[in-house]
Amino acid sequence: MNWDDIGFLLSKNRYNENSLITEVFTKEHGKISGIIFGGTSKKIKNYLQIGNQLFLNYNSKSENRIGYFKIEILKAYSPIYFDEIRKLNCITSSMNLIKLLTAESQSNERIYDLINEFYLILSHDEWLQKYIFWELKLLGILGYNLDLDKITSKKIINNKIFYVVESSTENKIVPNFLIDRNDKVNDLNNLLDGLKLVSDFMDKSILKPNNIDFPISRNEFINSLK
């Protein structure tokens, strides 16, 4: 099996002294694992930052054996944000989400396009607010819709609007910006509440049912925002 494609680096782990096992999300082939021989060398390792876009040549002797990549750098996104720890952590967290939530060797060009969209979001002043909606869009593409418009009820208390998800065990307040989508949010705590709501949904509906631990990279990202 031999093909060329472009993709984003999702993860990397040392394979031996000189090589790495990597996962990439490609435009035509979806999430693919492969070995990069010499991936720890000075010539290559600087390209291999999580989130960077690569040109890939993939070779494998059979579908049941892990193949190997030859790579070229197309776009080095991560170094752009080396001095912006919040955005750098966001890159790591988002790539890890895609790694955890997508299946091996299943093409999904909508996910690939969404990664490109992610980097456009990082250039905005309101990037964090836009990123939360990006996560909801990702979950929707993967079949895990959190349709807040349908499950919330609107309440007015002391002339203030609140949106609430009611259940037999608890009432959960939904940050207004997740419903009133055109509102610009200047309150970081409100944005953190939005991230927590998405985190709780993922943990309860996706991660725990599939015996997946809550990602450390997401906790690091959220903690860097505080």
Structural description of this entry:
- By secondary structure, the chain is of the alpha+beta class.
- The chain has 2 domains: 2-79, Beta Barrel (OB fold (Dihydrolipoamide Acetyltransferase, E2P)); 124-225, no CATH class.
- The chain contains 7 helices and 8 strands.
- A 5-stranded mixed β-barrel has the order 1-2-3-5-4.
- Helix 3 runs antiparallel to helix 4 and helix 4 (127-141) runs parallel beside helix 6 (188-207).
- The model has no long low-confidence stretch (mean pLDDT 92).
Short description:
The chain has 226 residues and is α+β, with helices and mostly antiparallel strands. It has helices at residues 42-45, 85-101, 109-121, 127-141, 148-151, 188-207, 216-225, and strands at 2-14, 20-26, 30-36, 53-59, 67-75, 153-157, 160-166, 171-174.
List the SSEs and their pairings:
Elements: E1 2-14, E2 20-26, E3 30-36, H1 42-45, E4 53-59, E5 67-75, H2 85-101, H3 109-121, H4 127-141, H5 148-151, E6 153-157, E7 160-166, E8 171-174, H6 188-207, H7 216-225
Parallel strand pairs: 3-5
Antiparallel strand pairs: 1-2, 1-4, 2-3, 4-5, 6-7, 7-8
What distinguishing features does this structure have?
alpha+beta; 2 domains; five-stranded mixed beta barrel; three-stranded antiparallel sheet; 7 helices; elongated
Helicity range of the residues? 25-40%
Look at the structure and give the mean pLDDT.
Answer: 92
Number of strands: 8
Q: DSSP helix count? A: 7
